[in-house]
Amino acid sequence: MSKLVQxxxxxxxxxxxxxxxxxxxxxxxxxxxxxEIWKIILNNWKPSRxxxxxxxxxxxxxxxxxxxxxxxFESYYQKVSSFLKNKQKLYLEGIxxxxxxxxxxxxxxxxxxxxxxxxxxxxPLKPLTEEFKERAMSYFLEFDxxxxxxxxxxxxxxxxxxxxxxGAKEISEQIALKxxxxxxxxxxxxx
Length: 191
Prior knowledge:
By secondary structure, this protein is mainly alpha-helical.
């Protein structure tokens, strides 16, 4: 449910999870062109392993490494893309399938740097991503919301939109402690 993934341009997508005719049909029904679907097929012909023996977390650094300028994110947030509703619909279809299979679902709203929060808060996209979150929660009879507070006495960000190993480890440890406390679907909001 990452807000940045919701608004990311189609050409920046990197689905590497393998091929599913049902998924391809769904993305076609939700506004993807034949050319865009062909790119997905090529990217997934030999998918890479999603799970490995060692994780590749971003190393700790006392300072952020800004690789994309703030203007990159401002351009994403300035206007509502034509495909946002279709992309959100795809996520909701996936959530619906998981709920029908009686899967226990946990959502994690990861934090991003305060500068991005400021851009998002002044954007026409903010109400649309919040509405999407509400629609996702509506698939459940009962839904819990829990918070995860990051210790920001040290830098927890690799860059404006990614956590470094310290931030990722802290969130993982807190979720590991909390996840069995919730019987319902849960949204963890990290800040």
